[in-house]
Amino acid sequence: MNRVLVVSAAMGEGHNATGRALEDAVHRLWPDADVAWLDTLDVMGSGVGPLFRWIYVSNVQRTPWLYEYFYRSLWRHRWFATASKRFVGAWCGRRLAGRVEDYAPDLVLSTYPLGSAGLEWLRRHDRLPMPTGAWISDFAPHPFWVYGSLDLTFVMHEQAVPPALACVPESTVEVSAPPVRATFRPGDRDTARERLGLPPGAFVALVSCGSLGFGDVEDAARALLAAHPEVVPVVVCGRNTALQRRLAPLAEADPRLRVLGWTDEMPAYTIASDVVVTNAGGATGLEALACGRPVLMHRPIAAHGRANAELMADAGLAIVCETDAELGDAVRTLITEPQRWKAMAEAATRHCDSTGTLEDGLLALTGVHPARELR
Fold first, then answer.
1. Where is the signal peptide (predicted)?
2. Over the stretch 131-145, which tens digit does the pLDDT of each residue have?
């Protein structure tokens, strides 16, 4: 039986969501394949996962300037990026080595940048002979995402190819279909709204800021309610129960606002929406793209969030809203100028149609026909 290893990390849900989409594609190609997972942060040592998650959330919420400084330093100082990647690669790679050798995979798929660093260390030390690819689950690549020793690096749009090559010019970069589960696809908006109990004639704005639900979500909800009487905001709080509690009084005051916690209905809500409002542009942005929905990037979070927003806007897939007033203006524009909404939705659909499927990416990585064995 073919063995496939997914190297991911529980840093929110985005990296694991990409991994699940790839696992589904593997089973569509090779139904008998055995798929195993490694969480990079768990492999790096006891306590590393909680520490790194705390650092990430703290930087985004409390010290965004520090997060931005680190991010910009990776771009401005090649020596800093190289040294950082080599340090993390050696740390992670040495700990990955035994796990990879014990499982003996035929194919390795990375969805987390630190995992890719460790895999490159293994490749440079002749301990990773099988095809190995990395899927960048952000719209905008950054230096920690790209490694020339891996066989393929997959980006999410043609606009992302030049920055990926700027990170590591010798890397091999291809454009992937959005790495989301097959349920995220264009669908009938009215049918989805009927099933979810959403008004058919409203302008539905789905607000989703990842599983952690951080950022200026409450301000976004208020701005959307004030933007136009036809707007129905649907706010998905994920696992942020405190946010859900804070929004409850606002929903009681204005019944247009729908507040959800963790839900398995994200594909249906995305299809039912007119726009998706987010602030990071990772998995949520890719799910919107796969469903043909425009994205409103409201107060993008520091570093990768801002980079994702700018690149999505350059591709005609998003409108960047730095303030609440800009979010209201963007919504009113899309309501009063439906051709603008149509152009953005068509750009998303056109891109997805041009990129093929995740299976195509896997075949490009392995260089085999689906009827053949990986070995």
1. none
2. 999 999 899 999 999
